[in-house]
Amino acid sequence: MAEVVVRPLARSDDRSDFGCGDIELDRFFQRYAGQNQFRHHIGNTYVAVDGARILGFVTVSPGEITGATVFEHTRKRLPDYPLPILRVSRLAVDHRAQRRGIGKLLLRFAFRLALELRDRFGCVGVVVDAKVTAIPFYTTLGFRPLEAMQGALGDRPEPLPMFLAIRRIIAALE
Ligand SMILES: CC(C)(COP(=O)(O)OP(=O)(O)OC[C@H]1O[C@@H](n2cnc3c(N)ncnc32)[C@H](O)[C@@H]1OP(=O)(O)O)[C@@H](O)C(=O)NCCC(=O)NCCS
User: What is the atom index within ligand 1 of the atom nearest the CA of 159?
Assistant: First the structure.
């Protein structure tokens, strides 16, 4: 594998061959990532590329969370109005490139965006909407569930919001 770099999605990127094993994520990337970014401005996608080949992507947007929700994670009593976060709404790696550090590389890129957000507008941490199969991946990177989980993991139809506080992000990048 040549050097893998992370850069913004370009209109000209060929996304048709991407397959991560999750049909919804593949469909999002192939059909909606471009229009969400270039036409609707609801979230930006960054791609990990090896030359012209797309190995993975991460989609982010700024979001909000309440101070009471993050109290357990930050150990700080933050005001109870909405606080700024960076949301990682989607992350996927092509099945041919999984388990080679690309997912981690994309998340580290998102962490640097969170620090930029912190410095320019404020940001208390990163929230991911974790699919049940990806919870162990996020857990190894330090993310913890934002809400108490209801029922067994296997019964969860909805993604689980998980949080990493900004001070831990700085540690993760060092
Ligand atoms: C989840 C996903 C993004 C991980 O990307 P990846 O490139 O395969 O992961 P990495 O190689 O960067 O792994 C980083 C670490 O997480 C661990 N890890 C990766 N996938 C894991 C899994 N499914 N379960 C447990 N640990 C996992 C790795 O062992 C690695 O740890 P290490 O650095 O100590 O060796 C990728 O497998 C994927 O796209 N899956 C399908 C779509 C999906 O579930 N996306 C997430 C939606 S929220």
Answer: 48
Strand order in the sheet with 44-50: 5-8, 44-50, 53-66, 82-93, 125-130, 160-165, 144-145
Binding site membership of 50 for ligand 1 (Cβ less than 6 Å)? no
CB of 137 shorter than 6 A to ligand 1: yes
CA of 8 to the centre of ligand 1 (A): 21
* 42 φψ region: left (φ > 0), alpha (ψ -120 to 50), beta (else): alpha
Look at residue 60 and give its three-state secondary structure.
strand
Our answer on whether the CB atom of 120 is closer than 6 Å to any ligand 1 atom is no
Give 89-131 pLDDT, tens digit per residue. 999 999 999 999 999 999 999 999 999 999 999 999 999 999 9
pTM of the model: 0.92
**Does ligand 1 lie within 6 Å of residue 136's CB atom?**
yes
Q: Which CATH superfamily is domain 5-173 in?
A: Gcn5-related N-acetyltransferase (GNAT) (3.40.630.30)
- The residue extents of the domains of the chain are 5-173
Q: Write down the residue that tokens 């989609």 correspond to.
A: 59
